[in-house]
Amino acid sequence: MSCANVLWTNKPLIIDPAAAVSHDGQALWEQAVYPLGNGRLGCTAFGEPRRERIQFNHDSLWVGNEDNTGAYQPFGDIHIELPHENFGRYRRELDIDRAVQSITYESEGMNYRREYFASRPAQMIVMSFSADRPGALQGTVTMSNIHTIPIEVQDDTLVMRGDTSQFEYWRLQTDDPKRLLANRAYASDKNIDLDFDDHRQAHLRQSLVGASAVSDRCQLRVCRRRQ
Prior knowledge:
Low-confidence stretches: 180-227
Distance between the termini: 42 Å
Shape: globular
Oligomer: single chain
Radius of gyration: 19 Å
Structural class: mainly beta
Strand order of the largest sheet: 1-6-7-8-9-15-13-12-11
């Protein structure tokens, strides 16, 4: 494989939450992330050993209606916390030929590997975490979003359920008549209501939610469950 087909760095992407919305924070994100996607689903993995952050998106999450198409919205973030305060031999890379992002590092004498890819046929994003010793992976998984949509745990699944009517962008449109087309009635049924019952969820193949998990290999997939 030619080196020209691989993007890589020896640093994880760490953005201070206080600076995330600043120009510098946005510029760092644009310069350092390795985006993955299949046309409908997309994600970026920041790659920090201690607290992995995976931003994910779906093309159905936007605000607006037939007159005002609004803007696409970030869907959410998955956070995977691991006790890897000290680490070395770090590498984060994107294999362009295979469309696979991988992260490798060493911590406390053990080697860890993460792999991410977006499958178009399966319509899911797959994330694999592995170690070179059995029982080496211990951590917790949480989910968040910038829209304060509530998140709950159902068995081994994190569920985010809500609608777009309270999103800041849409409130600005409906609160200010000057932003809307003249002589049009914008009733509540004009709001785009995402079908969150058609769950966009994080499915955990290992039982990682709400407790510690011990495994030498676990997989996490973000997908759309079909009814």
